[in-house]
Amino acid sequence: MAVKMIKKCSIAALMAGVVSAVHATGAGGYFGLMLGQTNLHGENQTFTLEPGETGTVKPDGKGIGTRLFAGYNMNQYAAIEGGFTYYSSMKYNTTLVSNNVKTRAASFDLLGKGMLPLADSGFGVFGKLGGAYLNSKTTGSVEGISLPSSSSSSFRPVVGVGVSYDMTQNWVADLSYTRILYNSSQVKNPDFIALGISYHLLDPKCGQFLC
Asked: 81: exposed, middle or buried (C-beta count within 10 Å: 0-12, 13-18, 19+)?
């Protein structure tokens, strides 16, 4: 009797685990936050301070960035997602006495997302492909001389890959790498390595369980 009860409890626990693992990637909306290291991959900039005098500054584009996003899972294999990413400001190193030049950048994106659950482990891998509108702007002064602001913006392709884990029916964590294929005088192919957390809404047509 005890053995039968243990078997029944084990089967029930296993089924609950499967439902928990699969449900978060089922149909329904979701929203979340990403936080990690961004890198604008800037190039050295040479500025004219006055006739016959120039100064060169070297960029340091690494820092902490964030992304807010929302999307909709059509099923456990495909989703559409949009987000806003704010990149860490790129500062410039120089041997000059005074320098506060910075490049700031942010982007809006719209992505298609393909997902592949890894059996019933709760883990999965995914890829993202779409486009992003990125704007970058450089401002500041060198040696007390204000520089004319320089900005650029463009809609460019985005690619990303990552791995996810379904913590519960609603909460999903992931680790991802994303790059915008963008090339300007200030920014070269900005990327984002991030940890993400998202909350998945249950499909109202399905209720508590899978369709």
From this structure: buried
Nearest 5°: phi and psi at 112?
-95, 140
Domain boundaries, the chain: 2-200
pLDDT tens across 3-40, in order? 454 344 444 444 444 444 444 557 899 999 999 999 99
Q: Do residues 172 and 164 lie in contact, with contact meaning Cβ atoms separated by under 8 Å?
A: yes
Topology (CATH) of 2-200:
Porin (2.40.160)
For the chain, give the number of residues. 211
Residue 7 has φ and ψ, to the nearest 5°, of: -60, -45
C-alpha torsion 190→196→202→208, nearest 10: 150
pTM confidence score: 0.77
